[in-house]
Amino acid sequence: MRAVVFVFFFCQVAIVNAQDYWQQHVDYAIEVELDDSNHILRGFESVEYTNNSPDTLDFLIFHLWPKAYSNKRTSLAKQLTRMGETSLYFATPDEMGDMDSLAFTLDGLPCAWELNKDYVDICTLKLEKPLLPKSQVLIETPFRVKIPSGEISRLGYVGESFQITQWYPKPAVYDQTGWHGMPYLTIGEFYSEFGSYDVKITLPENYTVGATGDLQTSSEIDRLDSLNLVTKNWLSQRQKENSWSEYSEVLDFPESSPDFKTLHYFQDNVHDFAWFADKRFHVLKGSVSLPHSSDSVTVWTMFTNKKASLWNRSIEYMSDAIYYYSLWNGDYPYKQATAIDGTISAGGGMEYPNVTVIGDAQSSVSLETVIMHEVGHNWFYGILGSNERDFAWMDEGLNSYNEQRYLSTKYPKGVLFFGDKSSKLLDRVGISKYGMKDLHYFSYLLSARANMDQPLSISSSNFSMINYGTVVYSKSAVFFNYLRSYLGDQNMDQVMKTYFEDFKYKHPQPDDFFNVLDRETDKNIAWMENDVIKSKAKLDYKIGRVRHIKSQPKLKIVNRGQIYAPLQLGYFMDGQLIDSAWIDGFRKDTVIELKPGLSRIEIDPFWIMPEIKRDNNYTKVGGVLPRIEPLKISLGGAIEDPRQNQVSWIPTLAANVPNGFMPGISFYNSILPVKKFNYLVSPMYSIRANQLVGFAEAYYMLTPTASSFESLDFGVKAKRFVSTYDKSLPDLSFSRIEPYVRLSFRPPSYNGYWVHELTFSSVIINEDEFNLTKDAKRNVMNIFNRANYSAQFKHPVFKTDFSIDAEQHVDFLRTSMEIDNKWRVTEVIALRSRVFAGYFLINNTTHPKYNWRMDGQTGINDYAFDALFIDRSGTNSVFDNQLTRNHGGFKTPIANGNSNQGLVAYNAELKFGKFPIGLFGDVGYSANNVFVSDGGLYISLIKEIFKVYFPLVYSSNIQTEIDANGYDFGDLVRFEIDFNKLNLMNIRRKLSF
């Protein structure tokens, strides 16, 4: 009886909720003409707006999104700049976009309206007569759009190829939570009202158009059918002759026809309209039968010569995408779908109802993936019109889950990154062990292991650029795939189909999705909403030892994560998987009974669970060290295999003057993804010195869940080399060990520009020195204790690296400050400026190698062996002129200004676009009351790594020093090689975020 009462109550609540639901309705009639030579749209729009809400509306909010391109202060411009993209910041007036010529009327009467004071691409229409519930108003306006450069974002032109998106005045959504006026952004998409679109497009008649809606113009339908036949013959000929390359560069635009045509499109139950026009398009046509009905969908693809060889199979990709998405979620409800080959800046592709635009694909795998993904958005964005700006996982996340399932279904033997290709090289580096679905897993780990991920529940605009990919796309994909594996395909498909049927052409909210999930399954999935969506909690189960208690084998399992989700156990006998079972999640340790005779137990035997750590998932039953996986040493291994203790190696070869050639081997653990413990050990043999040399580094990364620190690295660096070589004297060598602790601060906003770190280290040096007569050498040890605070301001126009250093030695205590700025003055002029100040707080040594140096440290006075030098001997070889950008940073090799007290210096470099030659200048002042300056030219041979400086002008005291030393011009030329940019551990660490 209680069950009957509960079911009755649940049904009544569901009915009430269904009756409470409402959404606004909009019907558009738009006529627009393309002026392709001036990049202008001129149009007239009529919008019949129906107020289905219970509220009386005193105003309407409209989006004028082309105005987002009108200046460098818009929300779009600011977001692009945060992303490191300066196309709008430096755009010329011709490259910017705008919308003007608006004159709104309501039911034929002029309407007062005003732009939002904070967002120029949002306006408010004031209603003279309030719009009552269940009533309508007709809004009309002319409009003109200045089309921006397609290099900026989604709306734009590239040559005479046009991507016309978010191009018309559009009412914002008004729903149960109020108005949703939002500025246009590149990251953070859209939320729009459903309705119908009746659109007429006028443009030169030799353009081919792909658009939202069903084409009503019979003559154009015949033209497209004819182009389809021509394209099939052309592709067949190219394939027969294998002559793709000679056509791929033929991309010239034909002259526009003087005659115009008008194309008529209509579509109902959509919330946007986009169109794409190009005179060079090839056209293919096909059809696909839907799995749940007898309906057929017409599919079109339109593409240029550039990647025609890849687009040859585009109809297959379109058809398969529509079929599988329909199979798993519900049938595609429209008559056509189109994919466009378009050069856009908004990632690999972009979706609109019935039509998607695809970026510059590099392979058939990438083209199919992007086509399939963007077509899939017809379900998750198009038909299920969730608010992507606030709940990105409901759009990009659910779609990426379907993408992952599609690739696993169609390519069950597909290889990560490479699709259905395989090779011995992929086997060697471990990639072939992973399927195409695992790309999202490794992407998720990129942020999650570095503790830089964010909760899925935050708004799109609050995600960092990388987390928008690694969290919104990838975390969603792997966790929903995990949920499917737990529920089973049949149950998961039922969930998705019910969700689709209940909310198609509506605006579902997160609660709506989880209510369906609760209703359609009898399992506890609260963890999915609370732990996966609303937090950045991590999944990590650890397997314990198998113990025999009264002859009964029992296994202990520990939850080391914060997600209390189910786990799958695999049972092995004689190396073969014989069974698997799901176990409900738990907070505390749990013990389970095992069948006798098992040889091995695994958590997650099919690599489905998105655990932060998988190498604690295995144990043998009995034996020595049952949880230690076998050691595997492999050449060039690159990717993690949690079933093995991996040691990878590659041959290395280095060289410098004192050591000569140094062949060796570098040992490391897997490169991808970055682990908590990382190491690189590179022993080498100095052929000239006949001794063992090399370097090593290892660090362990802690990632506290609730702390001001994002990560804490505990590490050590070590190196040993010959430092000085003279044929007549014994070699001098050094050993350097540097234990360190590095604290990375959690940023207040992942959309900000600042990154802060604090590092403490002790540098322990053992080096050989000659005695005064140089007839013998001795070993000397020095210890330098250091503290460094660094802050980076990562603005793409004005970047700053700021650091404060303190260093303590038995003979001195000193501190320094450095500010290194990089300012892009214009698109083609860049200024780099550096300020340095150093001062001894205590100094009880007169040894010159510890002095502040106006020209920076060279090999002979790099007392802590911080930098890598080709020659440290100071024997007047050409390599003595290698400089480091520290201390005073002067480019002219001088002793003037060196100080055992303090100095300040300013360095500047002026760069002109991609031209490799620039100008430099330095000024400095030391506590010895010495003022110096120099200037000249530099050549950048390898960007940010290798530069050569040619001093041309100097202050008089430098000139006097040059004359006194007898330097010629060649003696003054110096070069800089920043070997730190080539440091494998630094590169690897940056892979984590």
Given as residue ranges, the uncertain stretches (5+ residues, pLDDT < 50) are: 1-18
Mean pLDDT: 92
Largest sheet, in brief, is: 17 strands, mixed
Task: List the total number of helices.
Answer: 17
Shape: globular
* Fraction of residues in β-strands: 35-45%
Task: Please specify the SSE layout and strand pairing.
Blueprint: H1 2-20, E1 25-35, E2 40-51, E3 57-63, H2 75-82, E4 98-100, E5 105-106, E6 109-110, E7 113-115, E8 122-131, E9 135-146, E10 156-158, E11 161-164, E12 170-171, E13 174-175, E14 178-179, E15 195-204, E16 208-211, E17 214-215, H3 218-241, H4 245-248, E18 260-270, E19 275-278, E20 282-289, E21 296-303, H5 308-311, H6 314-329, E22 336-341, E23 349-352, E24 355-358, H7 364-376, H8 396-410, H9 424-428, H10 438-448, H11 465-487, H12 489-503, H13 510-520, H14 526-533, E25 541-549, E26 552-559, E27 567-573, E28 576-583, E29 590-593, E30 600-603, E31 618-620, E32 631-635, E33 645-656, E34 660-668, E35 677-686, E36 691-702, E37 709-724, E38 732-745, E39 754-770, E40 777-794, E41 798-809, E42 812-824, E43 829-843, E44 902-912, E45 917-926, E46 930-942, E47 946-954, H15 956-965, H16 969-972, E48 974-977, H17 984-990
Parallel strand pairs: 1-15, 21-22, 22-24, 32-33
Antiparallel strand pairs: 1-2, 2-9, 3-8, 3-12, 4-9, 5-6, 5-9, 7-8, 10-11, 11-19, 13-14, 15-18, 16-19, 17-18, 20-21, 23-24, 25-26, 26-29, 27-28, 27-30, 30-31, 33-34, 34-35, 35-36, 36-37, 37-38, 38-39, 39-40, 40-41, 41-42, 42-43, 43-44, 44-45, 45-46, 46-47, 47-48
Helix pairs in contact: 6-7, 7-8, 8-11, 10-11, 11-12, 12-13
